[in-house]
Amino acid sequence: MNKNLRKPVIAGNWKMNMTPAKTAAFIEELKVKVAGKNECDIVLCVPYVDIQTAVASAKGTNVKIGAQNVHFKESGAYTGEISAEMLLEIGAEYVVIGHSERRQYFGETDETVNLRTLAALNAGLKVILCVGEMLDERELGITEEIVSMQTKIALKDVSAEMLKNVIIAYEPVWAIGTGKTATAEQAEEVCAIIRNVIAKLYTKADADATVIQYGGSMNAKNASELLSKENVDGGLIGGASLKTEDFTIIVDAAQ
């Protein structure tokens, strides 16, 4: 497995944080810190209300902007939802799909993750696709089965060509917002499992080219160790993405 075949992606997931004014100030500070750091792709996935401000603030820099969810229909009676076309028109390039908090609090299922993924890819968005096991599933020893199943269902009807615009984020649910982090060895093990699933669904070359992030409480202190692993190609960063200094340290670790 050649890690050099893949460009790391460090993506911040702001969750429900930051107003448009705070977004502008944050990006003004961040873009100076990460200027010229092009050995990894840098993405900020921000709340819907911040996207236009973020796009304007990041224009001409190496910082890309994404959303945190997208509906699977083009339009219709879906109060409070946002379509892929809407995201594209305001400048979003990426979208997070299937985050554990969407699954836990908003009824997201493996099947709706697949529908959202297809809608986003067909519209031209890049997808950060989240998979990961609960604590009881890890303790039962079924991590491989759960993560493999989630990956297979999410990628149903996704062609090899479409796969080029998919990043997979392994996020052990027990390590999100808890302060707990999977060891570098645990992260490597599951990212390798995901890559093996992709190789079976597509080809080894497709698997080798797919970026697989780690997304469970990666921070300034543990990023270097996690990112040194062969199958860990970046991070989906929560809390640490809200501090420019910490986020920059993680970007530097991925260089």
Shape: globular
- How big a fraction of the residues is strand? 5-15%
CATH topology: TIM Barrel
Describe the biggest sheet?
8 strands, parallel
Number of helices: 12
Structural class: alpha/beta
Query: SSE order, as H and E?
Result: EHEHEHEHHEHHHEHHEHEH
Main CATH class: Alpha Beta
Quaternary organisation:
single chain
Our Rg estimate from Cα atoms comes to 17 Å
Give structural notes.
- The chain has 255 residues and is α/β, with parallel strands linked by helices.
- It has a single domain (3-254), classed as TIM Barrel.
- Helices cover 43% and strands 15% of the residues.
- The chain contains 12 helices and 8 strands.
- An 8-stranded parallel beta sheet has the order 7-6-5-4-3-2-1-8.
- Helix 2 (51-58) links the parallel strand 2 (41-45) and strand 3 (63-67).
- Helix 1 (20-34) packs across helix 12.
